[in-house]
Every structure is written in structure tokens, then in C-alpha cells.
Design goal:
The protein is an alpha/beta fold and about 375 residues long. It has two domains: about 130 residues, Enolase-like, domain 1 (2-Layer Sandwich); about 220 residues, Alpha-Beta Barrel (TIM Barrel). The protein is built from 14 helices and 16 strands. The strands form four sheets. A seven-stranded parallel beta sheet has the order 7-8-9-10-11-12-13. It binds magnesium ion. The site of magnesium ion has 7 residues, from loops.
Length: about 375
């Protein structure tokens, strides 16, 4: 029976280490061997369960250890004993329980939405305002320091129908970036190409290198310089005739408002792990749109559960028009954690219509990959 007034009684956590298939380099750091995520499970009085994922990256948003502690110690007391219906009140209190820790807050809101959706028998997108799209074009990132391995990946993407790639630049040297752009232009003309520096350029080098890259006419160039270099972002934006995207410079609505006011970008990468949840991610996209700026569905090193959360957010947010990059479950993790695969068909993510997130983790996999857990017997 639908009962949003029932109490949340269970709050369980797993800190997972998930093996990955390849090394990936970025302007601000590398990922090799594995990535770490934190999974939250909420249980209500009638036994209904909702799941959420936090996907921190230590050089970008924060650490898995801080995420786990934020949930276990500081957010748990806001949730246990509250009603399923009280999602907005719980999320409002999180700001006063722990600073930052946006990935922990994203996991909490995801689990609250999944739980409310399953109790009400509606998909999460219905709780976020309704659906504006059934599929989302998928972008896969090209970030392997061994470009031969990425050439093999490109061949696989072609077969799979993926038609957007994002080239990670600024981690070795400019010649390597140009070589790979030339390869894409000559050998893979069917791909729409985006470029992401992940803050990799110095203020001294940025103008020359970004202007070179702009000559390849990518869809956009993302975050060439450090997150706090707002003035340099605005300068670079004026020097090129392709859109400049902000990622690390914009976490939540507060930075989006400042970014728009200071004219640092033509668009923004919206990530629930930066904004601190799906609702705040929607707000980022709406502020951007109000200023005539575009929005892209970015992600961190996520498993399929976080992909599902991002999928529902984008499905309910018409302002996010540039597709998504939820590729890790399909192309990066050795094994995803979901019971059923995260659904991508012909290069497009399929928006689920079943209750809640439309997918849940395999509990045996959570236990298998756990470095730590706090699970009631
Ligand atoms: Mg980025």
C-alpha cells in the first residue's frame, strides 16, 4: 500500500573498491586499478528499500572516507525516524549537518527518491517534475595514456552505435593532444568530438593551446584552467569561436549564478556529485538556461546506480540538452554492481519507466567489493 508517511527505519552503508579495465589520465590526476564508491540503502517500515550511490574522486570532489563518515555519522541522524514523505526537509537539514560532502548528499537524495518512488510505484523522474525524453545520447571519454588502447575502444564504440566522444587533454603535452585530435578528424569523422582539459593548463599556456584545439571545431572545450581561475575562463571564452564549458568551476547553484554573472562559460557540466543531489542539479541547469547557457550531463567515476540517478535527473530536466557521459558501467568497470545491466542501446541511454530508479544493486556484489560496511544484521 502506498504510504509516504511511514518511517525510515534502516540506514546501511557499503564502501566499495571496484576494479577497472584501464588507466585513465586527466589534467588533475589519474585513475588506475580501481575506483571507490559508497552505497547507501534506506529501508522503510514496510520493508521497502531505496538505494543511492556516492562517487567521490579525491582530486575533484572529495574522498570516499569523508563521504562514508558524512553519511554514517552526520547524515544518518537526520534520516532514521523521519518519514519517507519528508525528503525536502531532510535535504534542507543536510546543509547544517555537514559542510561540502556533496557526493554524500547526492547519495542520500538518490536513496530517498528511490524509496519514495518504490513506495508510490512511480519512477524517480515523475518525482522530479515528469519526463521530457525517453533516451539520452551517450558520450564516452577517451583518456587512456596508451592511445592504441583508445583506438580499439573507438572501434568498439563505432560498432555499439556511440557517436559522441570526449577527448581528455592536458595531461601529457600539447603535441599528444593535437595528434589524437588529428586521428579523430581523419579516421573517425562520424564522431562528434568534445574536449576536456580537467584544469590541466597553466594560465601561461592556456590561450595558445586552447586556440589550436578550437581549430578542430569540437562541440565544446571544457575547463582548460583551474577551477578558481574565473577571470582566465572568461578571457579564454573571448578568444575562441567554439563554446567553453565549465565543470570544476561550477559545483552547485551558487557557483552557477556567479559563473553566469562573470561570463566564464557558454555551458556547464551538471553532475549530481558536485551539486549535492538531483534537485540542486536541476537548479544548476535552470540557472544556466535562464542566462542562455547550455548544460551537459556529466559524471564522476560512477557505477550503474549513480548513472541511473543521473539518467532520471536528465530525463526530468529539459535544460540539459548536450547528452550524458554515463559510460563507466559499460566501458570502464570490470563489473558493474547492478542486478541488471545499465541500459544503453545504439549509443543512447534508455530512461527506465519502472518504479524508483528502475534498477538496484546486487547485494552479493556489494559484500564482495566492500572495503568497509555498516549493515544491520
Ligand atoms: Mg569535465
Amino acid at each position: 500500500m502506498t504510504d509516504l508517511h511511514q518511517t525510515i527505519t534502516g540506514f546501511d552503508l557499503w564502501h566499495l573498491e571496484l576494479p577497472v579495465t584501464s588507466r585513465r589520465d586527466h589534467g588533475i590526476g589519474s585513475v588506475e586499478g580501481s575506483c571507490e564508491v559508497v552505497i547507501l540503502r534506506l529501508t522503510s517500515e514496510d520493508g521497502t528499500q531505496g538505494f543511492g550511490e556516492a562517487s567521490p574522486w579525491s582530486v575533484f570532489t572529495g574522498t570516499p572516507e569523508a563521504t562514508y563518515a558524512a553519511l554514517d555519522r552526520y547524515l544518518r541522524p537526520l534520516v532514521v525516524g523521519s518519514r519517507v514523505a519528508d525528503r525536502a526537509a531532510i535535504m534542507a537539514k543536510t546543509a547544517f549537518a555537514v559542510a561540502h560532502c556533496t557526493e554524500a548528499k547526492a547519495a542520500l537524495e538518490t536513496a530517498l527518491l528511490d524509496l519514495a518512488g518504490r513506495v508510490s510505484a512511480v519512477p524517480v523522474w515523475a518525482l522530479l517534475g515528469g519526463k521530457c525524453r525517453d533516451t539520452i545520447p551517450l558520450s564516452c571519454s577517451i583518456a587512456n595514456p596508451d592511445f592504441a588502447q583508445d583506438v580499439a575502444l573507438l572501434e568498439q564504440l563505432q560498432v555499439d552505435g556511440v557517436r559522441i566522444v570526449k577527448l581528455k587533454t592536458g595531461f601529457r603535452d600539447h603535441a599528444f593532444d593535437i595528434l589524437r585530435l588529428e586521428h579523430l578528424a581523419q579516421n573517425c569523422p562520424e564522431f562528434s568530438v568534445r574536449v576536456d582539459y580537467n584544469q590541466g593548463l597553466t594560465v601561461e599556456d592556456a590561450s595558445e593551446q586552447v586556440r589550436d584545439v578550437a581549430q578542430f571545431k569540437p562541440d565544446f572545450i571544457e575547463q582548460p584552467v583551474r577551477a578558481h581561475h574565473y577571470g582566465m575562463m572568461a578571457t579564454l571564452r573571448g578568444q575562441i569561436d567554439v563554446p567553453l564549458l565549465a565543470d570544476e568551476s561550477v559545483f552547485g547553484p551558487e557557483e552557477m549564478e556567479r559563473a553566469a554573472r562573470e561570463g566564464i562559460c557558454d555551458g556547464v557540466s551538471v553532475k549530481i556529485m558536485k551539486s549535492g543531489g538531483l534537485s540542486r542539479g536541476q537548479t544548476v541547469a535552470r540557472i544556466a538556461a535562464a542566462h542562455g547557457l547550455s548544460a551537459y550531463g556529466g559524471d564522476m567515476f560512477e557505477a550503474g546506480l549513480a548513472h541511473l540517478a543521473g539518467t532520471h535527473m536528465i530525463a526530468a530536466t529539459p535544460e540539459i540538452t548536450l547528452g550524458c557521459e554515463f559510460y563507466q558501467a559499460s566501458y570502464f568497470l570490470k563489473e558493474d554492481i547492478l542486478e541488471e545491466p545499465f541500459l544503453v542501446q545504439n549509443g543512447k541511454v534508455i530512461v527506465p519507466d519502472s518504479p524508483g530508479l528502475g534498477g538496484r544493486p546486487d547485494l552479493d556484489k556489494l559484500d564482495h567489493y566492500a572495503l568497509a560496511k555498516a549493515v544491520a544484521a
